[in-house]
Model the fold of this input.
Amino acid sequence: MNNIEERITALVDTLTSDYGKGRIIDEIKPFPHPDEDVLQDIISQLRSLVFPAHFRNKALKSYIVRNNTSMVLENIIYNLTEQIKRVLHYSPEFQSVSDDEIAEKSQELTFAFIEKIPKVREYIETDVQAAFEGDPAAFSKDEIIFSYPGLFAIFVNRIAHELHLLGVPMIPRIMTEYAHSKTGIDIHPGATIGKYFFIDHGTGIVIGETTVIGDYVKIYQGVTLGALSTRGGQALKNKKRHPTIEDNVTIYSGASILGGETVVGKNVVIGGNTFITKSVSSGARVSVKAQELNFRYGNEKPEKKDIEQDETWFYII
Done:
């Protein structure tokens, strides 16, 4: 036992000594950090406001919708105001501001965000409709609301995007990374997404910060809407680095569309596994050139089939 105590003591000494090297990972802030657990609970509470018939808070014993809504809303306002107060301390413009001013600004931002919930609900309703119309495997709209990871990722992005637009630091990214961890879908809160957005399956999708997506867009698993290069680092901040996807576009699995100047026009179909770094005119169908399938039966000569002549290849899901 004494040997264990000595080893633990030595390790504590080593670590505490290492903490004093003045690096960013050693810095102790004079204010509390955002609380991931609280923010995840806020997402859950917001979900019950956006889908009151599907995700009611079971801890609240109220028969009247108005009363239930009031209690959920007050809980969100209290906790979100506190979390915004914490993250505002990280912004240079608030580092020399009094605590009272930060508290007032935090409450102002919280109420400005809450006022956006009807807009979020308006957009989410169209997303549910797009998923139901776009997926023949969907049993019902309720099934989509309860179980589709794509819809959950879109929901979190829509609330995080509103916070992002209000200039709230850190919290939007923490929210979308939580959705990323649950769904495998990585959407930056800065991305602008129109109505009737459908993500089918979803695993491995990446949508970058400055992406702009129009209405009635459908995206399958493994799609990347990314930047051509990030080697410029912080020098690229606030520049358009990710593509624009116009209305009624379908992007099939494994496609990569890169670059801030890349625009995919209306009514385009992007085939699976394509790699696009230039704009695509409206109405085009983009496919990978010269792919073929080889079928061999025993010792017979392989039968070759040009994949581009097979229309069904576009619909790999």
In short: The mean pLDDT is 89. Helices lie at 2-18, 36-50, 65-88, 99-114, 117-134, 141-147, 149-165, 171-183. The domain at 191-317 is CATH 2.160.10.10 (UDP N-Acetylglucosamine Acyltransferase; domain 1). The chain has eight helices and 16 strands.
